[in-house]
């Protein structure tokens, strides 16, 4: 069977990161996730990830889905693959793909085409290469007289003539598994860095009469890796632009793409406009004719058609059609906002259903609530869902009118068509079409403030009066 080993033991010292380098994210997926996805898309599901620096982060991310092997000392790429020996020995019949966990743009097409060439040429090893204008830092491909490969020379070991070679090693290879195991046992650390170079397997294979080949790709992106934060930003920009292009091809409209970051799994229908400062993440889906932004953060949320969201943060929720939200609204997880709802400024909704055409215009908290259709929330309504120990639900029927500054103390149920008077604190269920009013009696003390002001403005007079 064909399988893959992904090298992810690196630290990325130059990044000054405190997580493994392959765990740094491009859009909303770690670089390692991109590489795994390329394997999955190429239908390679038997994977072993080599971990090293802070391995627990990678273990946590993989969550038992794929095998790992720990490289406890960083002695080079060859040494890293040696750690997968157990994994490799389980099935020595097929081929093994080696990939770098920090080169996120390797793709399924390149992987599959390289395998095709590898098997057609009956190679022991096939190196994936590309030609770069600036090959600095990469291993150079030294061609043989017959235009095959002779060896790979690392930057630090290269002569100045070799440094001028533009064809470089991507760090990705197909090996016949049985040959890989044998070649690994022959590696030695005799080089400028004192490391076990995986690249040395090429010259060793050739010296033993085995076949080594090259798959030269014209997709230079598959080579790109990140050694510095600057490289990382460039990879992110590269990925961001590709995603934006895909959406434009699908008919999504961008006014200006400043600050617009869209995750790889986001789906948007045609004729929707995305405005600046908008970040779309996770499995977010947006229907057609929406206007999203400026300044929205939408994570894992499904939005229908003809919605307008301005300065909204929404997480793990569903928003139906013709909904208008914002500015400055927080839709927290597990909310279901139904069609035609209007939500205005400084409103928070959490774990609630908001029925069709309900309006929550300003300064309101709706948490753990089931709200009916055509309800009108007055300014400053609070569903008081937490008593310090447990959370309870509020149920609000259709066509209720909630007066300004109402507190609804959960658990509480309002029937259909209920009115609550402004400033009321509702602690008991209210039946259909009733008014609930809870207020202290208003007292009016005439002349009170005038007397108070006089004592403040004319304290002397006051003293005189007292002395008399
Ligand atoms: C390697 C190749 C070089 C190629 C380049 C492509 C060697 C000797 N050189 O160089 O020809 O052009 O990749 O990017 O293989 N890793 C470990 N354990 C180690 C060392 C590395 O897991 O002990 C992992 C790293 O996390 C990384 C990958 O292997 O994912 C490549 O390692 P890196 O140090 O970046 O190799 P380069 O020197 O860049
Ligand atoms: Ca590298």
CA distance, first residue to last residue: 109 Å
Number of strands: 41
Class from helix and strand fractions: alpha/beta
- Largest beta-sheet details: 11 strands, parallel
Beta-strand percent range: 25-35%
Ligands bound, unique: uridine-diphosphate-N-acetylglucosamine, calcium ion
Number of helices: 11
Unreliable stretches covering 5 or more consecutive residues: none
Q: Tell me, briefly, the overall form.
A: elongated
Using only C-alpha atoms, the radius of gyration works out to 33 Å
Protein traits:
9-stranded parallel sheet, 11-stranded parallel sheet, binds uridine-diphosphate-N-acetylglucosamine, binds calcium ion, 11 helices
Commentary on this structure:
By secondary structure, this protein is an alpha/beta fold. 22% of the residues lie in helices and 28% in strands. The chain is built from 11 helices and 41 strands. Strand 4 (47-51), helix 2 (55-62) and strand 5 (67-70) form a beta-alpha-beta unit. The longest helix is centred in the middle third of the chain and has 21 residues, at 229-249. The radius of gyration is 33 Å and the shape is elongated. The structure holds uridine-diphosphate-N-acetylglucosamine (UD1) and calcium ion. Uridine-diphosphate-N-acetylglucosamine binds next to strand 1, helix 3 and strand 10.
Describe the structure concisely.
With 468 residues, this protein is an alpha/beta fold. Strands 12-15-18-21-24-27-30-33-36-39-41 form an eleven-stranded parallel beta sheet, with no helix packed on it. The mean pLDDT is 96.
């Amino acid at each position: 069977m064909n399988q893959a080993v992904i090298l992810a033991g690196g630290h990325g010292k130059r990044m000054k990161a405190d997580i493994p380098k392959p765990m740094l994210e491009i859009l909303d997926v770690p670089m390692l996730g991109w590489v795994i996805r390329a394997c999955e898309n190429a239908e390679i599901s038997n994977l072993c990830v080599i971990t090293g620096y802070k391995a627990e982060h990678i273990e946590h991310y993989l969550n038992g889905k794929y095998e790992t092997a720990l490289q406890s000392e960083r002695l080079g790429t060859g040494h890293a693959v040696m750690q997968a020996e157990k994994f490799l020995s389980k099935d020595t019949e097929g081929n093994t793909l080696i990939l770098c966990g920090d080169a996120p743009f390797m793709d399924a097409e390149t992987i599959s085409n390289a395998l095709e060439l590898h098997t057609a040429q009956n190679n022991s090893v096939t190196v994936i290469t590309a030609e770069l204008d600036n090959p600095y830092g990469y291993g150079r491909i030294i061609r043989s007289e017959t235009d095959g490969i002779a060896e790979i020379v690392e930057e630090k070991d290269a002569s100045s003539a070799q440094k001028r070679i533009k064809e470089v090693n991507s760090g990705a290879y197909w090996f016949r598994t049985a040959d890989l195991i044998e070649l690994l046992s022959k590696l030695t650390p005799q080089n400028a860095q004192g490391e076990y170079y995986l690249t040395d397997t090429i010259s060793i294979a050739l010296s033993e009469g085995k076949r080594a080949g090259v798959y030269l790709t014209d997709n230079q992106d598959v080579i790109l890796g990140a050694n510095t934060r600057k490289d990382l930003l460039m990879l992110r920009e590269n990925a961001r632009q590709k995603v934006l292009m895909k959406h434009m091809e699908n008919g999504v409209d961008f006014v200006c793409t400043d600050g617009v970051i869209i995750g790889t799994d986001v789906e948007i229908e045609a004729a929707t406009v995305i405005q600046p400062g908008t970040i779309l993440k996770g499995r977010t889906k947006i229907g057609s004719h929406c206007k999203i932004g400026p300044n929205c953060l939408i994570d894992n949320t499904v939005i229908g058609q003809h919605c307008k969201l301005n300065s909204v943060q929404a997480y793990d929720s569903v928003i139906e059609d013709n909904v208008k939200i914002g500015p400055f609204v927080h839709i927290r997880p597990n909310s279901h906002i139904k069609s035609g709802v209007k939500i205005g400024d400084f409103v928070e909704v959490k774990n609630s259903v908001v029925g069709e055409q309900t309006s929550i215009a300003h300064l309101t908290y709706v948490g753990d609530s089931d709200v009916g259709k055509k309800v009108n929330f007055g300014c400053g309504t609070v569903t008081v869902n937490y008593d310090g120990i447990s959370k309870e639900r509020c149920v609000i029927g259709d066509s209720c009118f909630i007066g300004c500054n109402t507190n609804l103390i959960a658990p509480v149920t309002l029937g259909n068509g209920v009115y609550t008077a402004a400033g009321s604190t509702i602690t008991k269920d209210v039946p259909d079409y009733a008014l609930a009013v809870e207020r202290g009696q208003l007292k009016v003390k005439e002349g009170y403030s005038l007397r108070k002001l006089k004592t403040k403005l004319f304290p002397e007079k006051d003293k005189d009066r007292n002395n008399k």
